[in-house]
Design goal:
By secondary structure, the protein is of the alpha/beta class. The protein folds into two domains: 140 residues, NAD(P)-binding Rossmann-like Domain (Rossmann fold, 3-Layer(aba) Sandwich), CATH 3.40.50.720; 315 residues, 2-Layer Sandwich (Dihydrodipicolinate Reductase, domain 2), CATH 3.30.360.10. The protein is built from 16 helices and 17 strands. A nine-stranded mixed beta sheet has the order 16-15-14-13-7-12-11-8-17, with helices on both faces. Strands 3-2-1-4-5-6 form a six-stranded parallel beta sheet. The protein has a two-stranded antiparallel ribbon with strand order 9-10. Helix 9 packs across helix 15 and helix 10 packs parallel to helix 15. The longest helix has 19 residues. The mean pLDDT is 94. The chain binds 6-O-phosphono-beta-D-glucopyranose.
Length: 489
């Protein structure tokens, strides 16, 4: 098998930080098919040698154990090439087509790590240059649009020249080993399935917390915000993995059909739900990891008053027989108290209590996604027994204890990273971990009413101090159902 991987945006942030390091790791592990060529594409005037030198210096900036030795890089460099292109010029595409056709690789991957505004034109031009044969796959990085209409416009334009099975829409959360493990947990074990329903589960909490602020990405982030950046894609994909029915097999469309059904079953927004079930926030100055950090507007250097949310908490339900009435809470934000992505499944209390237990103690499954990758199963066990002064035992008390499975310890922390896995899947043509257009559109359809609501909401995002868990309204929202966020338990 031979492949050509054309990396549009070959000198961009994503290529430096994620894609080229991931390709090098696959190369090092021997999982990248040997007969490959990687062609970086950008506007800069660079020779192959200059491009390789840039990559060599970037690969020295990654974690120590991931840096290549000189000998390793010399071998990796043989795969690397560079092509200067002006994406608005058809002559540039003709030059690319010539390069690709001369080699006639069995797989040709067009990775569009560029601004999404270029997707439509780039795909049309690639097709016009004859680069849309069945061996071609196209990879689209998020964000694919900023609302339903713009998402549809991109999907339609790309689908006019490529079949759905040639289009790989990235949601890098699906490439994380901990997220793939969610599918394994649910559909590779018999243990949880009978309990995975409204009769036994009280509520589910999905948290994706970041310590970092917007950093250098303010230009992209301001005006986009956490709902579009994290909820529409990553958080909803997690919700699908938790809430979907068992697929009939492990093929891409069987899995994606079930995820789509979840998205279609999310309770529609009403004015009352928009008021009470969504909280948006924006970080003010505070302290993160012992360091004083500025507020969002100051970090960005924009005037105070920007309405972009850096935090969202919301409540929804999946309206079907399995889940009716069970609240699903989603929460994500920047500059929170820690970097922590987890899903907490809170089970119901026993229907009849014969022992005394600490208030709020229930069975709970905590699925740690990052930075820890593991599972905790919280149980109630025999606690201390109290006896009356010198007399017989009077009460049997329960105490919480948990089983703790740490996948990093169990399997080592050197597991295949998200981009490594996704790039190999594109080259191998496996679509399971990529998002289909209808899923993506359904997710946009569901978040849009929230965006519209905010446009007319004069209150704006609530301020929260950096280094906290977001605005107190987020705790108040969940407290109205009689629950609290896991870290408050
Ligand atoms: C990206 C968002 O999709 O995911 C970023 O655009 C966010 O804003 C990032 O920081 C989080 O990814 P991870 O893998 O660090 O959790």
């Amino acid at each position: 098998m031979s492949f050509d991987l054309i990396l549009f945006g070959g000198t961009g942030d994503l290529a430096w930080r994620k894609l080229l390091p991931a390709l090098f790791q696959s190369f090092r592990h021997g999982s990248l098919p040997a007969n490959g060529r990687i062609i970086g594409v950008a506007r800069d005037a660079l020779t192959d040698e200059q491009y390789r030198a840039l990559i060599a210096s970037r690969l020295q900036q990654v974690d120590l154990d991931k840096r290549p030795t000189d000998e390793e890089f010399a071998r990796f460099a043989q795969l690397l090439h560079y092509l200067r292109m002006d994406l608005s010029q058809s002559s540039s595409y003709a030059a690319l087509a010539e390069l690709v056709k001369a080699r006639n690789a069995s797989t040709v991957v067009m990775y569009l790590a560029t601004a999404p505004s270029l997707f439509q034109n780039t795909c049309q031009q690639l097709a016009a240059a004859g680069l849309n044969g069945p061996q071609v796959r196209v990879v689209l990085e998020k964000p694919l649009g900023h609302d339903l209409a713009s998402n549809r416009a991109i999907n339609q334009a790309v689908r006019a020249v490529y079949a759905e099975k040639q289009i790989f829409r990235i949601d890098h959360y699906l490439g994380k080993p901990s997220v793939q493990n969610l599918f394994a947990l649910r559909f590779g074990n018999v243990l949880f399935e009978p309990l995975w329903r409204r009769e036994t589960i009280a509520n589910i909490q999905i948290t994706i917390a970041e310590e970092l602020g917007v950093e250098k990405r303010g230009g992209y982030y301001d005006g986009i915000g956490a709902l579009r950046d994290m909820v529409q894609n990553h958080a909803l994909q997690l919700l699908c993995a938790i809430g979907m029915e068992p697929p009939i097999n492990a093929h891409a469309d069987a899995i994606r059909d079930e995820k789509l059904k979840v998205l279609r079953s999310l309770t529609p927004w009403t004015a009352e739900r928009l008021r009470n079930h969504v909280v948006r926030g924006q970080y003010a100055a505070g302290t993160v990891g012992g360091q004083a950090v500025p507020g969002y507007a100051q970090e960005l250097g924009v005037p105070a008053g920007t309405q972009t949310e850096t935090f969202v908490a919301l409540r929804t339900e999946i309206a079907n027989w399995r889940w009716a009435g069970v609240p699903f809470y989603i929460r994500t934000g920047k500059r929170l108290a820690g970097r922590d992505a987890r899903i907490v499944v809170n089970f119901r209390a026993t229907p009849h209590a014969i022992f005394s237990a600490p208030a709020g103690a229930v069975n709970r499954l905590v699925i740690h996604l990052q930075p820890k990758d593991g599972l905790e199963l919280h149980l109630l066990t025999q606690g201390e027994q109290h006896s009356g002064a010198g007399g017989p035992r009077t009460t049997q008390n329960l105490a919480p204890a948990h089983l703790d499975l740490d996948f990093d310890k169990r399997f080592g922390s050197g597991r295949v990273g998200a981009y490594e896995r996704l790039l190999l899947d594109v080259i191998d043509g496996r679509l399971n971990l990529f998002v289909r257009s209808d899923e993506q559109e359904e997710a946009w359809r569901w978040v849009e009413p929230v965006l519209h609501h905010w446009e007319h909401d004069t209150q704006g995002p609530r301020a929260y101090n950096a280094g906290t868990w977001g605005p107190s309204a987020s705790s108040a929202m969940i407290a109205r159902d009689g629950y609290c966020w896991h870290e408050e338990q």
